[in-house]
Design goal:
This is tRNA/tmRNA (uracil-C(5))-methyltransferase. Dual-specificity methyltransferase that catalyzes the formation of 5-methyluridine at position 54 (m5U54) in all tRNAs, and that of position 341 (m5U341) in tmRNA (transfer-mRNA). 32% of the residues lie in helices and 30% in strands. By secondary structure, the protein is an alpha/beta fold. It has two domains: 209 residues, 3-Layer(aba) Sandwich (Rossmann fold), CATH 3.40.50; 115 residues, Beta Barrel (OB fold (Dihydrolipoamide Acetyltransferase, E2P)). An eight-stranded mixed sheet has the order 1-16-17-15-14-11-12-13, sandwiched between helices. Strands 4-3-2-5-6-7-8 form a seven-stranded mixed sheet, with helices on one face. Strand 3 and strand 4 form a beta hairpin. The longest helix has 18 residues. It is globular and about 65 Å long. It starts with a helix and ends with a strand.
Length: 355
Protein backbone atom coordinates (compact mmCIF):
# COMPACT_ATOMS: atom_id res chain seq x y z
CA UNK A 1 0.00 0.00 0.00
CA UNK A 2 1.84 3.16 -1.22
CA UNK A 3 0.17 5.50 1.31
CA UNK A 4 1.26 3.33 4.21
CA UNK A 5 4.83 2.97 2.94
CA UNK A 6 5.02 6.75 2.52
CA UNK A 7 3.95 7.52 6.09
CA UNK A 8 6.26 4.83 7.46
CA UNK A 9 9.17 6.38 5.54
CA UNK A 10 8.32 9.77 7.07
CA UNK A 11 8.35 8.30 10.57
CA UNK A 12 11.65 6.55 9.92
CA UNK A 13 13.23 9.79 8.72
CA UNK A 14 11.88 11.65 11.75
CA UNK A 15 13.27 9.11 14.20
CA UNK A 16 16.62 9.00 12.41
CA UNK A 17 16.84 12.80 12.60
CA UNK A 18 16.12 12.82 16.33
CA UNK A 19 18.80 10.16 16.94
CA UNK A 20 21.39 11.65 14.56
CA UNK A 21 23.10 13.83 17.23
CA UNK A 22 23.94 10.62 19.10
CA UNK A 23 25.54 8.90 16.06
CA UNK A 24 22.94 6.15 16.15
CA UNK A 25 22.97 3.44 13.48
CA UNK A 26 20.02 3.38 11.03
CA UNK A 27 16.93 2.09 12.85
CA UNK A 28 15.58 -1.35 12.12
CA UNK A 29 11.98 -0.82 10.98
CA UNK A 30 9.11 -3.09 12.00
CA UNK A 31 5.98 -2.26 9.97
CA UNK A 32 2.36 -2.93 10.86
CA UNK A 33 -0.49 -4.34 8.89
CA UNK A 34 -2.24 -1.27 7.43
CA UNK A 35 -5.68 -2.58 8.51
CA UNK A 36 -6.98 -5.01 11.10
CA UNK A 37 -4.14 -4.39 13.53
CA UNK A 38 -5.83 -2.96 16.64
CA UNK A 39 -6.81 -5.33 19.45
CA UNK A 40 -8.54 -2.54 21.38
CA UNK A 41 -11.14 0.01 20.31
CA UNK A 42 -13.26 2.53 22.18
CA UNK A 43 -16.41 4.22 20.88
CA UNK A 44 -18.95 6.72 22.11
CA UNK A 45 -22.54 5.53 21.79
CA UNK A 46 -24.57 8.24 20.07
CA UNK A 47 -28.33 8.34 20.54
CA UNK A 48 -30.39 9.90 17.73
CA UNK A 49 -34.14 9.40 18.11
CA UNK A 50 -34.94 5.75 17.55
CA UNK A 51 -31.42 5.10 16.33
CA UNK A 52 -28.14 4.75 18.20
CA UNK A 53 -24.70 3.90 16.87
CA UNK A 54 -20.99 3.76 17.62
CA UNK A 55 -19.15 7.01 16.95
CA UNK A 56 -15.73 8.62 17.14
CA UNK A 57 -14.55 12.21 16.70
CA UNK A 58 -11.78 13.33 14.39
CA UNK A 59 -9.14 16.03 14.95
CA UNK A 60 -11.69 18.79 14.24
CA UNK A 61 -14.18 17.26 16.74
CA UNK A 62 -16.48 16.13 13.93
CA UNK A 63 -18.59 13.11 14.88
CA UNK A 64 -18.10 10.07 12.63
CA UNK A 65 -20.47 7.13 12.66
CA UNK A 66 -18.66 3.79 12.95
CA UNK A 67 -20.66 0.76 11.82
CA UNK A 68 -17.28 -0.88 11.26
CA UNK A 69 -13.71 0.06 12.14
CA UNK A 70 -11.10 -1.07 9.58
CA UNK A 71 -8.18 -0.45 11.96
CA UNK A 72 -9.57 -3.00 14.42
CA UNK A 73 -9.03 -6.74 14.20
CA UNK A 74 -11.57 -9.05 12.58
CA UNK A 75 -12.95 -10.25 15.93
CA UNK A 76 -13.95 -6.70 16.94
CA UNK A 77 -15.45 -5.87 13.54
CA UNK A 78 -17.43 -9.10 13.58
CA UNK A 79 -19.07 -8.09 16.87
CA UNK A 80 -19.91 -4.46 16.20
CA UNK A 81 -23.09 -4.97 14.15
CA UNK A 82 -24.82 -7.66 16.27
CA UNK A 83 -23.87 -5.88 19.50
CA UNK A 84 -25.36 -2.58 18.39
CA UNK A 85 -28.47 -4.31 17.02
CA UNK A 86 -29.02 -5.88 20.47
CA UNK A 87 -28.48 -2.55 22.22
CA UNK A 88 -30.97 -0.74 19.94
CA UNK A 89 -33.67 -3.32 20.59
CA UNK A 90 -33.25 -3.71 24.36
CA UNK A 91 -34.11 -0.63 26.45
CA UNK A 92 -32.41 -2.10 29.52
CA UNK A 93 -29.11 -2.19 27.61
CA UNK A 94 -29.59 1.06 25.72
CA UNK A 95 -30.81 3.48 28.40
CA UNK A 96 -28.08 6.05 29.20
CA UNK A 97 -25.33 3.98 27.63
CA UNK A 98 -22.59 6.37 26.51
CA UNK A 99 -19.47 4.30 25.76
CA UNK A 100 -18.42 0.85 24.52
CA UNK A 101 -14.90 -0.57 24.80
CA UNK A 102 -13.64 -3.67 22.97
CA UNK A 103 -10.54 -5.66 23.91
CA UNK A 104 -9.61 -8.72 21.83
CA UNK A 105 -6.83 -11.30 21.82
CA UNK A 106 -5.25 -13.01 18.83
CA UNK A 107 -7.15 -16.20 19.74
CA UNK A 108 -10.44 -14.44 18.92
CA UNK A 109 -11.36 -14.00 22.59
CA UNK A 110 -13.14 -10.64 23.17
CA UNK A 111 -14.13 -8.63 26.22
CA UNK A 112 -16.69 -5.82 25.86
CA UNK A 113 -17.27 -3.07 28.44
CA UNK A 114 -20.47 -1.02 28.37
CA UNK A 115 -20.29 2.23 30.35
CA UNK A 116 -23.42 3.98 31.67
CA UNK A 117 -24.60 7.26 33.18
CA UNK A 118 -27.01 5.42 35.51
CA UNK A 119 -27.02 2.54 38.02
CA UNK A 120 -27.23 -0.96 36.56
CA UNK A 121 -30.22 -2.96 37.81
CA UNK A 122 -31.46 -6.56 37.63
CA UNK A 123 -33.13 -5.93 34.27
CA UNK A 124 -29.78 -4.83 32.82
CA UNK A 125 -28.03 -7.89 34.20
CA UNK A 126 -30.64 -10.28 32.81
CA UNK A 127 -30.39 -8.79 29.31
CA UNK A 128 -26.59 -8.54 29.51
CA UNK A 129 -26.22 -12.21 30.48
CA UNK A 130 -28.30 -13.24 27.46
CA UNK A 131 -26.26 -10.96 25.20
CA UNK A 132 -22.90 -12.24 26.49
CA UNK A 133 -23.98 -15.85 25.91
CA UNK A 134 -25.35 -15.09 22.44
CA UNK A 135 -22.21 -13.27 21.28
CA UNK A 136 -19.75 -15.55 23.09
CA UNK A 137 -17.94 -12.70 24.87
CA UNK A 138 -17.12 -11.56 28.37
CA UNK A 139 -19.30 -8.56 29.12
CA UNK A 140 -18.66 -5.90 31.74
CA UNK A 141 -21.09 -3.22 32.82
CA UNK A 142 -19.67 -0.10 34.43
CA UNK A 143 -21.41 2.80 36.12
CA UNK A 144 -20.45 5.14 38.95
CA UNK A 145 -19.10 2.99 41.82
CA UNK A 146 -20.40 -0.13 40.06
CA UNK A 147 -18.82 -2.89 37.98
CA UNK A 148 -20.61 -6.08 36.94
CA UNK A 149 -18.50 -8.82 35.34
CA UNK A 150 -20.19 -11.46 33.19
CA UNK A 151 -17.43 -13.91 32.31
CA UNK A 152 -13.93 -12.49 32.93
CA UNK A 153 -12.55 -8.98 33.30
CA UNK A 154 -9.52 -9.95 31.19
CA UNK A 155 -8.57 -11.56 27.92
CA UNK A 156 -5.69 -14.00 27.74
CA UNK A 157 -3.17 -13.13 25.05
CA UNK A 158 -0.29 -15.27 23.76
CA UNK A 159 2.89 -14.04 22.09
CA UNK A 160 5.34 -16.39 20.40
CA UNK A 161 8.88 -15.13 21.04
CA UNK A 162 12.15 -16.95 20.47
CA UNK A 163 10.48 -20.29 19.86
CA UNK A 164 8.37 -20.13 23.03
CA UNK A 165 4.80 -19.08 23.85
CA UNK A 166 4.22 -16.50 26.58
CA UNK A 167 0.74 -16.07 28.04
CA UNK A 168 -0.67 -12.87 29.50
CA UNK A 169 -3.83 -11.84 31.28
CA UNK A 170 -4.69 -8.38 29.98
CA UNK A 171 -7.17 -6.80 32.37
CA UNK A 172 -10.04 -4.51 31.53
CA UNK A 173 -9.19 -0.82 31.85
CA UNK A 174 -5.45 -1.56 32.23
CA UNK A 175 -2.66 -0.82 29.77
CA UNK A 176 -1.61 -3.31 27.11
CA UNK A 177 -0.06 -2.77 23.69
CA UNK A 178 -2.92 -2.34 21.15
CA UNK A 179 -1.09 -3.75 18.12
CA UNK A 180 -0.43 -7.40 18.95
CA UNK A 181 1.60 -8.27 15.85
CA UNK A 182 3.97 -5.33 16.32
CA UNK A 183 4.14 -6.02 20.06
CA UNK A 184 5.47 -9.49 19.30
CA UNK A 185 8.15 -7.90 17.11
CA UNK A 186 9.06 -5.51 19.93
CA UNK A 187 9.47 -8.43 22.34
CA UNK A 188 11.65 -10.31 19.87
CA UNK A 189 13.86 -7.26 19.25
CA UNK A 190 14.29 -6.63 22.98
CA UNK A 191 15.29 -10.26 23.52
CA UNK A 192 17.85 -9.99 20.71
CA UNK A 193 19.51 -7.16 22.63
CA UNK A 194 19.73 -9.14 25.89
CA UNK A 195 23.04 -9.21 27.70
CA UNK A 196 24.90 -11.77 29.79
CA UNK A 197 22.91 -14.91 30.60
CA UNK A 198 24.84 -15.20 33.87
CA UNK A 199 23.97 -11.62 34.93
CA UNK A 200 20.77 -10.02 36.24
CA UNK A 201 18.24 -7.60 34.74
CA UNK A 202 16.58 -4.66 36.45
CA UNK A 203 13.29 -3.54 34.91
CA UNK A 204 11.48 -0.28 35.67
CA UNK A 205 7.85 0.46 34.69
CA UNK A 206 7.20 -3.25 34.07
CA UNK A 207 3.37 -3.10 33.92
CA UNK A 208 1.78 -6.53 33.47
CA UNK A 209 5.11 -8.14 32.54
CA UNK A 210 4.84 -7.68 28.79
CA UNK A 211 8.63 -7.55 28.37
CA UNK A 212 9.50 -9.15 31.71
CA UNK A 213 8.50 -12.69 30.85
CA UNK A 214 10.49 -13.23 27.62
CA UNK A 215 13.48 -11.23 28.90
CA UNK A 216 13.62 -13.42 32.00
CA UNK A 217 14.67 -16.31 29.75
CA UNK A 218 17.78 -14.31 28.77
CA UNK A 219 19.03 -13.48 32.30
CA UNK A 220 19.91 -15.29 35.49
CA UNK A 221 17.43 -13.27 37.55
CA UNK A 222 15.09 -10.30 37.02
CA UNK A 223 13.98 -7.65 39.48
CA UNK A 224 10.82 -6.05 38.03
CA UNK A 225 9.39 -2.86 39.52
CA UNK A 226 6.05 -1.13 39.01
CA UNK A 227 4.10 1.38 41.09
CA UNK A 228 0.59 0.45 39.87
CA UNK A 229 -1.21 -2.04 42.10
CA UNK A 230 -3.24 -3.38 39.16
CA UNK A 231 -0.04 -3.78 37.14
CA UNK A 232 1.63 -5.69 39.98
CA UNK A 233 -1.43 -7.92 40.33
CA UNK A 234 -1.39 -8.81 36.63
CA UNK A 235 2.39 -9.30 36.65
CA UNK A 236 2.24 -11.76 39.56
CA UNK A 237 -0.54 -13.72 37.85
CA UNK A 238 1.36 -13.80 34.56
CA UNK A 239 4.50 -15.04 36.31
CA UNK A 240 2.50 -17.96 37.71
CA UNK A 241 0.75 -18.52 34.38
CA UNK A 242 4.14 -18.94 32.67
CA UNK A 243 5.83 -20.83 35.51
CA UNK A 244 8.65 -18.27 35.76
CA UNK A 245 10.84 -18.83 38.80
CA UNK A 246 13.59 -16.22 38.38
CA UNK A 247 11.51 -13.00 38.62
CA UNK A 248 11.21 -10.94 41.80
CA UNK A 249 8.58 -8.19 41.95
CA UNK A 250 8.74 -4.93 43.88
CA UNK A 251 5.97 -2.33 44.03
CA UNK A 252 8.21 0.71 43.80
CA UNK A 253 8.25 3.76 41.57
CA UNK A 254 11.39 4.53 39.60
CA UNK A 255 12.16 7.37 42.02
CA UNK A 256 11.76 5.08 45.05
CA UNK A 257 14.01 2.44 43.53
CA UNK A 258 16.63 5.12 42.87
CA UNK A 259 16.52 6.08 46.54
CA UNK A 260 16.80 2.43 47.61
CA UNK A 261 19.76 1.73 45.35
CA UNK A 262 21.56 4.84 46.58
CA UNK A 263 21.02 3.67 50.15
CA UNK A 264 18.97 6.75 51.03
CA UNK A 265 15.85 4.83 52.09
CA UNK A 266 14.94 1.31 53.08
CA UNK A 267 11.55 0.02 52.00
CA UNK A 268 9.47 -2.49 53.95
CA UNK A 269 8.05 -3.67 50.62
CA UNK A 270 11.52 -4.95 49.64
CA UNK A 271 12.09 -6.57 53.02
CA UNK A 272 8.70 -8.29 53.02
CA UNK A 273 9.46 -9.90 49.65
CA UNK A 274 12.98 -10.90 50.70
CA UNK A 275 14.62 -8.67 48.06
CA UNK A 276 18.23 -7.75 48.80
CA UNK A 277 19.46 -5.30 46.18
CA UNK A 278 23.11 -5.93 46.99
CA UNK A 279 22.70 -9.61 46.03
CA UNK A 280 22.03 -8.77 42.37
CA UNK A 281 24.65 -8.52 39.63
CA UNK A 282 22.85 -6.23 37.21
CA UNK A 283 24.18 -6.22 33.65
CA UNK A 284 21.25 -4.40 32.03
CA UNK A 285 18.45 -2.05 33.05
CA UNK A 286 15.28 -2.14 30.95
CA UNK A 287 12.92 0.84 30.87
CA UNK A 288 9.60 1.46 29.12
CA UNK A 289 8.56 4.81 30.65
CA UNK A 290 5.41 6.90 30.11
CA UNK A 291 5.30 9.59 27.42
CA UNK A 292 6.87 12.17 29.73
CA UNK A 293 10.11 10.18 29.70
CA UNK A 294 12.50 9.66 32.61
CA UNK A 295 13.21 12.10 35.45
CA UNK A 296 16.73 13.33 36.24
CA UNK A 297 17.20 11.18 39.35
CA UNK A 298 16.29 8.02 37.45
CA UNK A 299 18.54 9.00 34.54
CA UNK A 300 21.40 9.25 37.05
CA UNK A 301 20.55 5.73 38.22
CA UNK A 302 20.51 4.38 34.66
CA UNK A 303 23.94 5.84 33.96
CA UNK A 304 25.40 3.42 36.52
CA UNK A 305 24.53 0.34 34.43
CA UNK A 306 26.71 -1.17 31.67
CA UNK A 307 23.72 -1.53 29.34
CA UNK A 308 20.42 0.35 29.05
CA UNK A 309 17.56 -1.04 26.98
CA UNK A 310 15.06 1.77 26.46
CA UNK A 311 11.63 1.38 24.82
CA UNK A 312 10.00 4.74 24.11
CA UNK A 313 6.48 5.83 23.15
CA UNK A 314 7.62 9.43 22.60
CA UNK A 315 10.71 10.09 20.45
CA UNK A 316 10.99 13.70 21.64
CA UNK A 317 11.36 12.76 25.31
CA UNK A 318 13.64 9.88 24.28
CA UNK A 319 15.91 12.38 22.51
CA UNK A 320 15.86 14.66 25.55
CA UNK A 321 16.85 11.76 27.82
CA UNK A 322 19.61 10.75 25.41
CA UNK A 323 21.24 14.16 25.73
CA UNK A 324 21.96 13.15 29.34
CA UNK A 325 22.78 9.48 28.78
CA UNK A 326 25.06 10.27 25.83
CA UNK A 327 27.72 11.41 28.30
CA UNK A 328 28.18 7.85 29.55
CA UNK A 329 26.65 5.59 26.90
CA UNK A 330 26.53 5.16 23.12
CA UNK A 331 23.66 3.80 21.01
CA UNK A 332 24.60 0.43 19.57
CA UNK A 333 21.18 -0.55 18.19
CA UNK A 334 17.84 1.14 17.54
CA UNK A 335 14.47 0.26 16.06
CA UNK A 336 11.13 1.76 15.04
CA UNK A 337 7.95 -0.17 15.80
CA UNK A 338 4.91 1.15 13.91
CA UNK A 339 2.25 0.50 16.54
CA UNK A 340 -0.12 3.12 15.12
CA UNK A 341 -0.24 3.30 11.30
CA UNK A 342 -1.46 6.53 9.70
CA UNK A 343 -0.78 8.55 12.85
CA UNK A 344 2.29 10.60 13.86
CA UNK A 345 2.86 8.28 16.84
CA UNK A 346 6.26 6.56 16.96
CA UNK A 347 7.26 3.67 19.22
CA UNK A 348 10.99 3.05 19.25
CA UNK A 349 13.76 1.23 21.06
CA UNK A 350 17.45 1.89 21.68
CA UNK A 351 20.19 -0.17 23.23
CA UNK A 352 22.83 1.93 24.98
CA UNK A 353 26.18 0.51 26.05
CA UNK A 354 28.71 2.16 28.33
CA UNK A 355 31.44 4.07 26.53
Amino acid sequence: MPAYQSQLAEKTARLAALLAPFTAPPPAVYPSLPVGYRMRAEFRVWHDGDDCYFAMTNATRERIRCDSFPSACEAINRLMTPLMAAIRNRPALRYRLFQAEFHAAQTGEVMVSLVYHRPLDDAWQTEAQTLAATLGVSLIGRARKQKIILGHDFVQETFHVGGQDFHYRQYENSFSQPNAAVCAQMLAWACQQAGNLQADLLELYCGNGNFTLPLAKRYRRVLATEVSKSGIRALRENILLNDCTNIAVARLSAAELSEAMRGERSFRRLQQDGIVLAAYNFDTVFVDPPRAGIDDATLALLARFPRILYISCNPETLAANLTVLDATHRISACALFDQFPFTPHIESGVLLERR
